[in-house]
């Protein structure tokens, strides 16, 4: 009975720390700004695709494969809009995407600073430049994962026909893509925990949180994909806003997972391994 009570008290303590660190508020703030940059990023990617041999029909096929059915209408309208407009949209799209995503990265930085109990003392211009770099890195990660998961087989055939020397590497990537996706997410999370908060720690101390964040991200994505496919009550409640609301909720829980990963790092290292109490440091 005492062990259950200790477990309950521990769970209550962790829950209170999550509340004190405003994890939900920072996750919502990050999700909002990342949502603002999502549409410009999609616009930018589709605009750049026009300069490649990929046709509009190919883009539509990719949209159907990548996004859940509830998002198809929104992305399809974006594709049609981009193909019907001039290329002058590119500069505006880049500026809006980088500004919005930069604000999202800054919100995530503030949340991790609060989780790690450290004050922000770095220059704002430096933070902005770094936020832009992380935005570009995030876009590259998403593109890599999409290419690997959606166009992997097509890319493998193309490489086998035109660059046979790389065919073995391509085959290996296709076979291992189930493991590559969580590995890429974990490495990206490691970089977030290492460089975003104003705290100097080794990479190995961030591994527990990175594993949690990667697994949490995949579980959240899987739950939302199942929910969208099986349950239609959301569309009855929100109507035409269903797609936007679902994407916002998905981003919120993904950002929440990343911030919870920071809490895991604090719990694993600052408390269990060193025996220190973060509450004492805060008080």
TrEMBL record:
It is found in: Cell membrane. Keywords: Cell membrane, Membrane, Transmembrane, Transmembrane helix. This is YihY/virulence factor BrkB family protein. One of its GO terms (cellular component) is plasma membrane. The keyword Transmembrane helix applies. InterPro entries: Virul_fac_BrkB (IPR017039). Its main location: membrane. The keyword rRNA-binding does not apply.
